[in-house]
Amino acid sequence: MYMTQGLHRSLQSDPQGIATIFKDRVRTYEEHVDRIARFAGALQGLGVQAGDRVGILSMNSDRYAEYLLAVPWAGAAVNPVNIRWSPAEVAYSMTDSGTRVLLIDDAFLPMAPLLLEKAPVLTTLIHCGDGPTPEGMLSYETLVAENEPVVDAYRSGDDLAGVYYTGGTTGFPKGVMLSHTNFVSSSLGTVATGQLLKAGSRLLHAAPMFHLADLAAWCGLTIMGGTHIMVPYFEPTSVFKAMEEHKPTDVLLVPTMIQILVDHPDSNNYDLSSMERMLYGGSVISEGVLNRTKARFPGLRLTQAYGQTEASPVITLLLPDDHEGDRMRSGGRAAPHCQVAILDLDGKEAATGEVGEICAKGAHVMQGYWNNPEATAEALRGGWLHTGDLGYMDADGFVFVVDRLKDMIVTGSENVYSAEVENALSKHPAVASSAVIGVPDEKYGERVHAVIVLAAGQNPTAEELQAHCREHIAGYKVPRSFEFPEALPMSGAGKILKRDLRDSYAAAQN
């Protein structure tokens, strides 16, 4: 298996088919492959060798799509950088992975001097934006124009394809080493369901392309052959316009993005009828948001993917026909390429309905963490990838994710799973979004604390919210305290940063 396989197939079978659309740039597969082969030649000319890491710090674009294939074409491995990171975090990932070449677009040019200062390993910056190329950097377009195309290196199998740094929601980022087999097997397994990314699909990239969830969708469509449509970043109006103008059939979003779209006041002003399938994941979606999505897109086929970077990333899939009843609260069943088990603390399989750690195995599981054998041994023990997520499996194999191990709240000796409380809160009309954390409590050890962003014009009391929760969950799970900020801290992938909420709460008490 190799990342560029689908590209060769599309060039052979549909060279004049549209490969990418970005702003006013539309490129065929013939043009797409030529540019990829030329940029690969440029990388080799810059001294990039087999297995080297090449980074990118950029918003979504057609050049990003070219980078994802040109780097393996040149024999190297991709290292997409989280666009929400500070210069220190970016520099750490460059230094840790030994990345010498970094592509950078206009949005991040002000960061360049700090990166060069903090990460001496960086020797070459390639400007991949649309503005003028700064002094001291190389122009992406000039490199493409002035280099001859080279033959695909055909790196494959267990060869390193990418180093993806975790989002850092539960600690300092770790570099996840993923092979060509890891990437392709996960994408093939997802496509094998027959519910996503059919041949000729038009995929809208509104989620950040640095994130592995979007990479999985990108890889699946590249395998099947279709059109990649990019918007620079998620912004409701630009997404609506892209849907109306370019007629995508598929999109991948995280739940926070879906909520923003379906609740946007202009949602009904655009023709979104081309949309056939929506893949969502990255975090748990509440029933309230899910029901509003189904109402706004009545013909849309919804699929939820549960997974993590270490699994390339798909572990389970909740397919369209399973979006009903209690199954809507689950993450679905094991994807075709994956084996799933719920294991207890002793590494034994838990009984049906019993909460334990969600574990996975298959050809999609990572090779390990870059330069971190201890963390690798901890995650890959007993022949399983230990996800760090708590969940249970029902008699039909549906996996219900209840919490991160580190997010579980123990109050008065009772375990409370934050996702369950957040789901109850989501059903209140005044709650736009929420995050539930455990905070210190003298009497109970920890208490359930809800951080809530209110819907416009709403101002419920704590007592009203508590009464609402008691209608859906047990009394000991009901939040005992509340905060009402204007927004929740988010990672670049759209995940709520509960660690930041806990730190903020602790700082406020001192």
Automatic annotation (TrEMBL):
The AMP-dependent synthetase/ligase domain, residue ranges: 9-370
InterPro entries cross-referenced by the UniProt entry: AMP-bd_C, AMP-bd_C_sf, AMP-binding_CS, AMP-dep_synth/lig_dom, ANL_N_sf, ATP-dep_AMP-bd_enzyme
Zinc as UniProt keyword: no
Alphabetized UniProt keyword annotations: Ligase
Sample GO molecular function, one term: ligase activity
Limits of the AMP-binding enzyme C-terminal domain: 420-495
UniProt name for this protein: Acyl-CoA synthetase (AMP-forming)/AMP-acid ligase II
